[in-house]
Amino acid sequence: MIKTSKLILIRHAPVKTEVGCFPDNDPDAIIDELKIKKLAGHIPEDCLWYVSPLKRTIQTANALSKYVNVKEMKFEKRLKEQNFGDWAGKKISEVWKELKKNTSQHNFSFICPEVSPPKGENFLTILERVSIWLEELHFHDPQTAVIITHAGIIRGTLSFVLGIEPDKVIGIEISHLSLTRLEFLSKTDDINRGGRFRILAINNKAD
Question: Which CATH number belongs to the domain containing residue 122 in this structure?
Fold first, then answer.
């Protein structure tokens, strides 16, 4: 029987923001110990963890690691959230003045996938780097890895795994401290239809 590896993708804890403003590029997380402890109960012991090197993900990972043993924690820059450049920390009303100039808008997202903030990056860039990272991911033996990352990265993963268009995938809700699970085959076992990856759960809450 072919054995699969599993990925548990977790969005970081909520962040400190100013009402009416775009989030900073690297804000601090708001750690609720009760919610962290509940979430930790859904994470298997002694797994390899990949963590985005931004403060909010590191703080979330450190908080969770108090309640669950970690085999090894690796920081992966390709798991960073989209860089919003000059829009970071700016009033939403000011950003919206710029966005209204675009010929098209999105029904469920503040910005369309192809839109790049000044000195920032667009969602298509996120999709490209997370796709490369997933393609390179290989374990010698089947195992479970935990990924502490961001909503954009999780949406990019879903787009890559399921072949969902960026326009559609950015409308998928990914809540703070939610779990999205998938399993995947090694490249040598990927010999039939269906691809290497399979989704097990999306945006599960640790209630």
Answer: 3.40.50.1240
